[in-house]
Fold this sequence. Notes:
Layout: E1 2-4, E2 12-16, E3 20-22, E4 30-31, E5 35-39, E6 42-47, E7 59-62, E8 67-70, E9 72-77, E10 84-85, E11 90-91, H1 93-98, E12 102-107, H2 120-136, E13 137-139, E14 143-145, H3 157-165, H4 182-194, E15 200-201, H5 216-222, E16 226-227, H6 239-248, E17 252-256, H7 261-273, E18 280-283, H8 296-306, H9 312-318, H10 321-326, E19 342-346, H11 356-361, E20 367-373, E21 376-379, E22 393-395
Parallel strand pairs: 2-7, 3-8, 9-12, 12-14, 15-16, 16-17, 17-18
Antiparallel strand pairs: 1-13, 2-5, 3-4, 5-6, 7-22, 8-19, 10-11, 19-20, 20-21
Amino acid sequence: MAVAATETFQGKLVIRNIGLLLSGDLQSPILSADTIVAVNGVITSVGKERDCDIGGADQMIDAKGTTVSPGLIDSHVHPVFGDWTPRQSQLGWIDSFLHGGVTTMISAGEVHLPGRPRDVIGLKALAITAQRAFSAFRPGGVKVIAGAPVVEKEMTEEDFRDLAAAGVGMLGEIGLGGVKTADEAKKMVDWARRHGLQSTIHTGGPSIPGSGLIDADVVLETDPDVIGHINGGHTALPLDQIRCLCERCRRAVEIVHNGNELAALHALRTTMGLGQADRIILGTDSPAGSGVQPLGILRLVAFLSSVGDIPAEQAFCFATGNTARVRRLNCGLVQPGRAADFVIMDRAQHSSGNDLLDSVRKGDLPGIGMVIIDGLVRIGRSRNTPPATVVPEIVRLETRRDPASPHL
């Protein structure tokens, strides 16, 4: 179901009886708290129930001892318009990602639009239109940060100034258009940075006709804000080049579901070995030739935790707080002042894991019991994940009445 972008829960939301609270913050990934209070879609307090003001709740959710996490963020998608993708001729793909716990998506360029304009006027118009359209239309309530122009050689600094003034905040993957050399790409990134636009570069071999190889030398000279799909999309760079990027570049390291798994593990281990886990962010790089993956972020979390030998609570941070910080979003962390975006989940039924974190460490996906965006319950039990052992419940509250009402 599509909802208006301005639809936020107006009132007081309380989530109580939380068994495990994941913060999204690498410095303290697990919080000693069992209650969250949010007002008008924004978190106001987090702590023990006895220390929180839960009175006067307009909606109360009993988590029943399950796990609450910040809503997952997909750092790398390629939307077009609405909840449709021509890449796989599929409707409802964004709503399906919601059932995988994704509450926010970041566009890496609306490249799959049939007849996508490549002239400067057209590509600017497309970026502004996509930014406006997804700001006003949110499939399932998912926040799609879109309007990411694929840069072309003919662009000037004035074009970046125009895009920023129009509300566009990022570039599409550099390398998907005509800009492929380091000197051209660096000029575009410098202009973008000067006007407040974030940049991402395609890394690895070509993914679609018209794209090309972007190797480590080009990435290092260009110095983008995000090393897009460092593990390839789909074809990865040689492992020594991936190590070079992790060691010599301080920018965000984006690992994607639709990339090379060996390269993903190499990037993970190299970055972790440098003590720079805060650089790691996750995306799916979909829709793509390999399809649409509604559970892609959860699968990536489970893969990196189980095969990459990363504590599950840290792996969840890669898909929440890390991405929120890199992408400059007011979500991804469970703390006052942040958007009330949550995934409530539990160990999947019959998982060999003792609890949710143990099950993820063993490679299993959790079962989602509820997803909340801006304080609104968007879905209950997920139709896509394995069924959760325990699901949360919306507590029926007595209707509060005005004592001055003559109808009392």
